[in-house]
Specification:
Elements: H1 6-12, E1 19-23, H2 29-36, E2 42-47, H3 50-62, E3 69-73, E4 86-92, H4 94-103, E5 113-118, H5 123-132, E6 134-144, E7 147-156, H6 163-168, H7 170-174, H8 178-198, H9 204-221
Parallel strand pairs: 1-2, 1-4, 2-3, 4-5
Antiparallel strand pairs: 5-7, 6-7
Helix pairs in contact: 4-5, 8-9
Length: 222
């Protein structure tokens, strides 16, 4: 059995599908693990960088999965086809994940489920999901090696999130866990430092933006 880290293990808990496309698959750890656990039957492991693409190919051979996992070199969602019923994009910043989804939305005609794990800034992901006809069905925070990651699970549907739900997550806001408080307390400390640096700076627009964010976080953490 292949070993995967805590955050990918949490992502795998949402898998119960036929064919997965893992975008930015690195060494194809998640598809291999998911097949070994019987969570999926087949997979495409997509990579845009040659090194990880070759590593994924090697891993699928090592674990005897060349018939089950197709390793593809390509940009974002270009590697998927209509047989895919779930897509995972993990280990990236929220803005990049949002960009991948937006640029590849023409490949999402069948509305496969999306399981997205952002290292930072999940807000742009929520914005693009709402825009292209997806609804968030679950959100989770997971702490792995001191870093707190956000996992978003979305399916075809409509949602209309307000500004606060976009930033903090509609489901995470309803169920404020200890990790939620820890994550946003860290963010608050970081923003307070930036605010102090900008206090005597000419860029008052940015200064006011930061202070608005600080007020919003303080309100949510009450």
């Amino acid at each position: 059995m292949i070993q995967i880290n805590k955050r990918l293990t949490k992502v795998s808990e949402y898998l119960n599908h036929n064919k997965l496309a893992d975008i930015g698959s690195d060494h194809a750890y998640l598809p291999i693990y998911a097949i070994q656990k019987g969570l999926i039957n087949k997979a495409i492991a997509g990579e845009v960088v040659k090194g990880p693409f070759l590593a994924a190919q090697q891993n699928t051979k090592t674990y005897g999965m060349t018939d089950s996992i197709e390793v593809k070199l390509g940009n974002g969602l270009e590697v998927i086809d209509e047989t895919i019923d779930v897509i995972t994009i993990c280990g990236m910043g929220g803005p990049l994940i949002a960009q991948i989804i937006e640029e590849g939305q023409h490949k999402l005609n069948e509305y496969p489920d999306l399981i997205l794990q952002a290292n930072i800034h999940a807000l742009p992901i929520r914005q693009v999901l709402q825009k292209i006809g997806y609804k968030i069905y679950d959100e989770q925070l997971i702490k792995d090696k001191k870093h707190i990651y956000e996992i978003l699970v979305a399916k075809k549907g409509t949602m209309l999130l307000d500004e606060k739900e976009m930033r903090f997550g509609p489901i995470l806001l309803k169920n404020k866990s200890d990790l939620f408080y820890e994550k946003w307390q860290r963010e608050l400390e970081s923003l307070n430092k930036i605010s102090k640096q900008l206090e005597h700076h000419d860029d008052k627009v940015r200064y006011n933006e930061i202070n608005q964010q600080i007020l919003q976080i303080k309100e949510v953490l009450k």
